Amino acid sequence: MQGELDTVNKYVLSAIELRTDWATGATIAENHAYFLKQINLFRQFLQPAAADDAEFILIPDTNALLKSAEPSQYGDVIDDARFKFVIVPTVLAELDGLKRNRANQPLGEKAEKAIRIIKGFRAQGSVLEGVTVNKTIKVQMVPTEPRMKELPSWLDAENKDDRIIGSILEIQCGQFSAVVVLVTDDINLQNKAEMAFLPWSEPPEFVTKVVSLTAAAK
């Protein structure tokens, strides 16, 4: 059993590092099927911890918050009103930078509005531990930067999108039974999420097909 776990672990790490040329099929479908077969052993171990009402964690990028910083509007992303809304440090830094940049006044005003809404959560308790809004949504802010040296080597510590991916990976590792979803309309960031095997969705106003809780948990 330990030998099987080691073999699967090496394959998964190679896949994350994009070093699986020896096992790459001709089509996406073939690769997807092969990957699912390889990680089936891990699924068997994790199954007891995966409840039917698995928790959803939504992580918006900067563009998503510029469109809407109200967590209540993100329920359509997963077709559920109960979820955790987590804001990572790279996104907060980007918003603050946009607010200070008056060269693009409309964008700066949007950033200032988003920050004002986010700061309003502090009045309800500790945002580091998480505060409940609209009865079913827990809003939380991550204060620490991702440990990029411990994450996939193709992530660039100087790239803001890569740092967002890094934060999401750390959150997923810390809560393995949860479904962590990146919310972004940035096609480049969407591509990087797919490279990191992370689910993503468009921001609320662009969602054309919601993801059900059961389907995403699978």
Question: What this model shows, in words?
Answer:
With 218 residues, the chain is of the alpha/beta class. It folds into two domains: 2-49, no CATH class; 56-217, 5'-nuclease (Rossmann fold, 3-Layer(aba) Sandwich), CATH 3.40.50.1010. Helices cover 46% and strands 11% of the residues. It is built from ten helices and six strands; from the N terminus they run H-H-H-E-H-H-E-H-H-E-E-H-E-H-E-H. A six-stranded mixed beta sheet has the order 3-4-2-1-5-6. Helix 6 (89-100) packs across helix 7 (105-120). It is globular and about 55 Å long. 25% of the residues are buried. The model is unreliable at 208-218 (pLDDT under 50).
Brief rundown of the structure:
This protein is an alpha/beta fold and 218 residues long. It has helices at residues 2-16, 28-38, 40-46, 62-67, 75-78, 89-100, 105-120, 160-174, 187-195, 213-217; strands spanning 56-60, 83-87, 131-133, 137-141, 179-183, 200-201.
The structure class reads alpha/beta
Global Rg: 18 Å
Distance between the termini: 24 Å
The portion of residues forming beta strands comes to 5-15%
The portion of residues assigned to helices is 40-55%
Q: Describe the strand arrangement of the main beta sheet, using strand numbers.
A: 3-4-2-1-5-6
Order of helices and strands: HHHEHHEHHEEHEHEH
Tell me, what's the shape?
globular
Query: How many beta-strand elements?
Result: 6
Number of helical elements: 10
Low-confidence stretches: 208-218
Largest sheet: 6 strands, mixed
What's the CATH architecture name of the largest domain? 3-Layer(aba) Sandwich
Task: Spell out the CATH superfamily of the largest domain.
Answer: 5'-nuclease
> What is the fold named in CATH at topology level of the largest domain?
Rossmann fold
